[in-house]
Amino acid sequence: MTKHNLKSNAVPAAVMVGPVALWLSFFVAIPLLYVLVMSFCSIDEHYNVVFKFTLVNYQRLFNPNYIQIYGQSILIAFLTTLICILLAYPFTMIISRTLSKRKTILYMLVIIPFWTNSLIRIYGWKTFLGTTGWLNTGLMHLHLIDKPLDLLYNRGTTVLGMVYCLFPFMVLPLYTVLEKLDQNLLEASSDLGAKGHTTFLKIVLPLTVSGIFSGSIMVFIPTLGYFFVSDILGGGNTDLIGNLIERQFQSGNNWSLGAALSIVLILITLLLVKLYQKCGGDMDNLGV
User: Fold this and answer.
1) Which CATH superfamily groups domain 63-286?
2) What is the residue range of the signal peptide feature (predicted)?
3) What CA–CA distance (Å, rounded) separates 43 from 56?
């Protein structure tokens, strides 16, 4: 290919890629770089960010109270991910084996919640589970309980809210791999005398583990940052890393520490994505 052809091909490519590159630079790269720089800045007596290099913000990350919140965040994220797998896997298998018309309906049931803001839906759960909510009112009318149950402001309710918000993110990658599953392999396994659970463990599960891993990352990472779910349903009793970050930028007025916490969360995300790549995962399943 001649130099003239290379130049003629470079112009359309620059026109196509240029706007995207500028968009990513201004709205992704530069803000992240600013957060990184801020994480090494100091705070004066008036809680203003001073561009004076310090490692104090990263030293404060090892505060015992913060470490406890890190552990609680990982526990809640793990429980949320595990429950999403257990619920989404059989549901997705049903969708993948359903006829086309019903398949569309079931698939839409997963997509429809995205049409409503998640904050509004979480407030709906708070109303439903409250002491004067529909659930307690219905149980009392049925004389199943004598007084309202205290269902809000605990770890279990926070996990429930997380599962509700992030369940579709587990279904979508699982649906992708289950839809591509070769049914001939299942028929061959049945013809050779393998039972249902054997076929699942030896064929279905190994062929869909990439979807499980992809969905786990898409659920685990957002759980660490969904501070509004913990605030509304947990009542501040189940703080996450996202709550720490939100608090530093709002009531704490310590933007530098909040930036340092944000960098830690970004590093966790990159580490999990890198682990996913090492395991042979397809980045398209993560939307990257």
Assistant:
1) MetI-like (1.10.3720.10)
2) none
3) 10
